[in-house]
Amino acid sequence: MSIYKNTITLKGFLGKDAEQRTNSNQTPFTVLSLATKSSYKDKQSGEYISRTEWHRIVAFGKLANPTKPLVKGAYIEVEGELYSREYTDKSGNKRRVWEVRATSVNKLERAPRQTGEVLDSPAEDEVPA
Q: Where are the beta strands (DSSP E) in the chain?
């Protein structure tokens, strides 16, 4: 067993249809744009503050085909590794991108709509200042 572990699990909604591509080695892959949401209660105003985070998900090889038909609005769970890579853009600038290299992607049933207040609020010491 390794003492180092790089795993991430995300549940959220797709912001656009899955994009099928191939790399320079002709390996198929699918790119997904996943939105996750978190919220907390502001101590001063008492209002709930909501934040959406966008994640780039990449599914390679055998996992690329089953993810092709996923469309905008699909509710999914992704497991994988957080990975960074550098590239040079068209203007010659070096860029770094963070993405999740998926090891599994599961389509879920729609989450029940929440009404009113947030059910899973962070602990007091987790609320940003």
A: 8-14, 19-22, 28-41, 48-60, 75-88, 94-107
